[in-house]
Design brief:
The complex is a heterotrimer of chains A (741), B (104) and C (122). By secondary structure, chain A is of the alpha+beta class. Chain A has 23 helices and 22 strands. Chain B has 104 residues and is α/β, with parallel strands linked by helices. Helix content of chain B is 39%, strand content 33%. The chains are: A alpha+beta (741), B alpha/beta (104), C alpha/beta (122).
Chain lengths: 741, 104, 122
């Protein structure tokens, strides 16, 4: 299992299981509104079936054992033996989650045992599943195994009357159809030869008809085999021929069988008895003496009239007939299967266009493309300095291509937001049950693409917002009806592109925000003053402040006053913004605006001493010169008066302990973030710059105010500043310096 | 699968090339037996046989038996590795040359 | 000459593991992710054995085997059906369609290898 190929396959299994579980969940939810949807039932069954099947191959017994029971219940559902109802769907959803937990625990550590809680949960679910499992026999035993063709029961060897040979004797007569069924008798004999030693083998072509009647695709052969293998039992030999059990008459005599058993064998076989006897001697199964004894016993039997009539004349070909009869298949089944195919085909076409690659490979590629962009810029710079116009032309073509590669590479990381949205189907279902509200989720713009790194981080904020909408937004049914709204509430998720960024909306048709109540609450919390005049937007924005909560009842889900400020922080960490639009009694929509990618930003480059710094361009409000007088005045303070308002600032020179004397003409770059402004004091303004951001190594993770680095065309490294942290620092310095005064 | 036949002076040389499997068994039977009928002596060259299964082996047995019944000489020559493997498996490599296998 | 085995299953990880096991034992492997995909890859080349799942999207294993058995180049090619013990009826349906061998899911790679070598030795 520690084979790299198998390790990779195991990773594939985890990925595949996650996808199957998502599909399973979607289908289970679909089943809620349409319990007869056979397509959904099949999809659910298939998911469980595949996870069990593949899991078993990796020896993941825990997953197999649990999924097996789920699969059994699903099989009964599929056969219409178990009715689909809300209770069953809820149980199956829990089972799905449990399988997901098992998968994730193994993905984290393939050797791990499930923890106690998981184990207990599994046992509980299994007990619940029992109620839906088959009532009678377990499915394993539901079909009796086909009777083995071996007719001789092993008996304890007796001292006398047993043969000397310590070899097994195997007698094979194949059915006519065995070759047409794709089974090659020679292949089984070859396998037998690998398992032990074929001491002797005799081919019996007695049944081969005259040439004109011989069908070249039929099998007429029989084999008598003397086989030696230590430490096996009869069942093991039977297993060799399990696939031809119906196409072959198989007799097995263990070593040291009694002579009588050989007599029975000879009697049972269709060929001439004397010849068979000689054959057995040739095989080494019997000695001449033993054969004589056998024939004597047979003669005795005939005398006493015990010999069974050789009724086997055409047993072999009869078997074939039975098989053909069994081969009847209802044509309507095929038609139904074909009908389904058409529907699924379109999906398939898209699917086959996709290839699966590891995310870190892609990250590496994008990293390299970043390096190329930088190196390319350096080459252009050198080319411009030279007077070689051919070189300049070549580098400009190169630059254009590099840009295309960069765009293409970034495009690779773009994924559709639909998958993230779809997860909320389950959330909305579960939460609406919990809240006892009837709420439906409407998804729009599922095909909108955004960077994978953004998608991964947007889940949590969306979760907060959706739950908040359901909990506080959507009114109780009675109230909705009073207000003349449909009883069923709607939460919508929507996404679209707008001027270089992506907008994700979470909306509801609930009660809307109560401006007066928010304002009152903010006043109480000291977030605003009574005589402040604020726009609606600004008031609504207050709910994103830390510790703000207006809900009168603290519910299970939200209303604890944490959440909305976390949402804003998360979104701002993605360099995004959030705004609220609401109309009382009509509904609320939260709009999240995110950059398309986190890997490249339009930056603003600034110099301090010998170092360079970058801030995202869209956070820069303006640049102002710090006059000599102001410099003197602000030597010890950390704010200036900018057109009548207090602007806290921070000297990057001090913050980063840059050596050397400050420039005589220091500038302040005014940056804004999250509604706050601050100034960054720098030596030099170096203009706009497209920066490929490289994350900081772990070593620098506690460096305050820096989010990453980028490399300039000159090859120098510039730090990308974390504006929000710097603003906070500036604000705290300012209050500190004010309190000193 | 192809069978090349060269006949002269009542001796028929057949060269089998490719798969002697169930996919071609009927075709082979249809080609080999008439040629056996039309000659006094037959030599089947198996050097080009890439694969042989039970159907192919059974056909060789049939041709051999038909030749015996008609008192004609039949030789299998130049066994390819694939044919040898089967004959060895069945313990008849030594006598599947120009004598009748003992099972017949 | 290596024998060729086709593996048809909608689980990529299953195909991967089976392929690793078979290639390690000396077989050549062709993969198909469902019946439609598998049929599109069967263009008359020699295939000594087909391993097919029953439950697959687009085209299930039973339909696939029936279609396979209608193709001149594959009508005698042995088929191993991947069944589960809860699917005894499917197994019979598969046998009727022409898949005379079966392996019960879940299985270990060695079990698959044993079944394969009963039908076609590498």
């Amino acid at each position: 299992m520690r084979d790299t190929g198998l390790d990779q396959a195991l990773q594939t299994f985890f990925m595949e299981s996650r996808e199957l579980l998502i599909a399973m969940e979607e289908s289970l939810l679909a089943l809620e509104s349409a319990p007869d949807d056979t397509e959904a039932i099949s999809a659910i069954f298939r998911a469980a079936h595949t996870i069990k099947g593949s899991g078993g191959m990796f020896g993941l017994d825990g997953i197999v054992a649990f999924t097996h029971v789920v699969e059994n219940v699903l099989d009964r559902v599929r056969n219409g033996e178990v009715p689909v109802n809300g209770e069953l769907i809820a149980l199956l959803l829990c089972c799905r989650d449990h399988i997901g937990t098992l998968v994730e625990q193994l993905a984290a550590d393939p050797d791990a045992k499930p923890d106690m809680e998981t184990e207990a949960n599994g046992v509980m679910l299994l007990n619940q599943l029992k109620a839906h499992s088959s009532t009678g026999q377990p499915p394993v035993a539901a079909v009796a195994p086909a009777p083995a063709k071996t007719q001789i029961v092993t008996q304890p060897p007796l001292d006398d009357g047993t043969v000397a040979s310590d070899n097994w004797h195997i007698s094979l007569r194949f059915a006519r159809d065995v070759l047409r069924n794709g089974m090659d008798p020679l292949a089984f004999i070859r396998y037998l030869g690998n398992m032990g030693k074929i001491v002797h083998i005799a081919v019996l072509p007695d049944a081969l008809p005259f040439a004109p009647d011989m069908d070249a695709e039929s099998c007429y052969l029989g084999f008598e085999i003397d086989f030696h293998c230590d430490g096996i039992d009869k069942a093991a030999i039977e297993m060799v021929f399990e696939f031809v059990r119906e196409d072959c008459s198989l007799r097995i005599l263990p070593p040291h069988s009694r002579i009588e058993e050989y007599v029975e064998l000879i009697n049972d076989l269709p060929e001439d008895k004397i010849r068979l006897g000689e054959l057995l001697i040739n095989c080494g199964s019997l000695t001449k003496k033993e054969l004589d004894e056998a024939l004597r016993l047979q003669a005795l039997r005939v005398e006493s009239g015990q010999e069974a009539a050789p009724a086997e004349t055409d047993a072999v070909s009869q078997l074939g007939d039975i098989l053909v009869e069994q081969g009847m298949v209802q044509p309507e089944l095929v038609d139904a299967a074909l009908g389904k195919q058409k529907v699924a085909k379109e999906n398939k076409v898209q699917e086959s266009k996709l290839i699966r690659i590891q995310a870190d490979k892609l990250d590496q590629l994008i990293n390299l493309v970043g390096e190329i962009v930088i190196t390319g810029a350096a080459v252009s710079l050198l080319a411009q300095r030279s007077s070689d116009s051919a070189l300049q032309e070549a580098t400009s073509t190169l630059s254009r291509l590099v840009e295309e590669i960069r765009d293409g590479a970034l495009q690779l990381r773009m994924v559709q937001i639909g998958e993230t949205f779809n997860r909320f189907n389950r959330v909305v279902r579960d939460v609406s049950k919990e809240l006892n509200k009837d709420i439906t989720l409407v998804i729009g713009g599922a095909e909108t693409e955004l960077d994978k790194s953004v998608v991964e981080k947007i889940g949590d904020p969306l979760m907060h917002l959706v739950r908040n909408s359901m909990d506080h937004g959507i009114e109780q049914t009675e109230l909705r009806l009073q207000r003349g709204k449909p009883a069923k509430g709607t939460v919508h998720l929507n996404a679209y592109h707008e001027s270089g960024s992506i907008v994700v909306e979470v909306g509801d048709d609930g009660g809307g925000l109560n401006r007066a109540r928010i304002f009152a609450k903010a006043l109480e919390k000291g977030l605003v003053t009574a005589n402040q005049t604020l726009s609606d937007q600004e008031v609504y924005g207050l709910i994103f402040e830390a510790g703000f909560s207006t809900a009168e009842a603290v519910t299970n889900l939200s209303g604890r006053g944490v959440g909305m400020d976390v949402v804003r922080r998360n979104i701002e960490a993605l360099r995004g913004t959030v705004e609220i639009d609401s109309r009382e009694g009509v509904g609320t929509t939260v709009k999240i605006r995110l950059p398309l990618t986190l890997a490249i930003i339009d930056g603003f480059l600034m110099g301090v001493g010998s170092a360079s710094y970058v801030v995202p361009l869209d956070m820069v409000m303006e640049c102002v010169e710090l006059s000599e007088a102001e410099r003197y005045a602000t030597r010890d303070s950390h704010y200036i008066n900018l057109r009548g308002t207090v602007l806290p600032f921070i000297r990057l020179r001090d913050h980063f302990r840059e050596q050397g004397k400050a420039s005589r003409y220091e500038k302040i770059v005014v940056v804004q973030y999250g509604g706050q402004q601050a100034g960054l004091v720098v030596d030099e303004l170096m203009g706009e710059f497209q920066a490929v951001i490289k994350p900081m190594g772990k070593f620098f993770s506690n460096l305050k105010g820096v989010s990453g680095s980028t490399i300039l065309a000159s090859g120098e490294v510039a730090l990308v500043l974390e504006v929000s942290e710097l603003i906070q620092r500036a604000v705290s310095l300012e209050s500190h310096s004010i309190s000193k005064v | 699968m192809t069978i090349n036949i060269e006949a002269s002076n009542g001796v028929c040389h057949a060269q089998v090339t490719g798969e002697m499997t169930i996919y071609h068994a009927a075709e082979m039977k249809g080609e080999l037996l008439p040629h056996l009928d039309g000659c006094n002596e037959m030599e089947i060259n198996l050097s080009g046989v890439s694969e042989i299964d039970t159907a192919g082996f059974q056909l060789l047995l049939l041709v051999k038996r038909e030749a015996n019944r008609a008192n004609k000489l039949l030789r299998f020559v130049a066994h390819s590795p694939a044919t040898l493997e089967v004959l060895e498996l069945l313990g008849i490599a030594s006598n599947f040359g120009d004598t009748v296998p003992h099972v017949l | 000459m290596a024998k060729t085995v086709m593996v048809v299953d909608d689980s990529a990880s299953l195909r991967q593991v089976v392929s690793i096991a078979l290639r390690g034992a000396g077989y050549d492997v062709i993969e198909g992710c469902d019946g439609v995909d598998a049929l599109s890859k069967l263009t008359g080349q020699k295939v000594h054995l087909v391993i097919s799942d029953v439950n697959m999207p687009n085209m299930d294993g039973i339909t696939f085997v029936k279609k396979l058995k209608q193709m001149a180049a594959y009508k005698f090619t042995p088929v191993i059906m991947l069944t589960t013990e809860s699917q005894e009826s499917k197994k019979q349906e598969g046998q009727a369609a022409g898949a005379k061998a079966w392996v019960v899911k879940p299985f270990l790679p060695t079990q698959m290898l044993a079944a394969v070598s009963k039908l076609v030795m590498a």
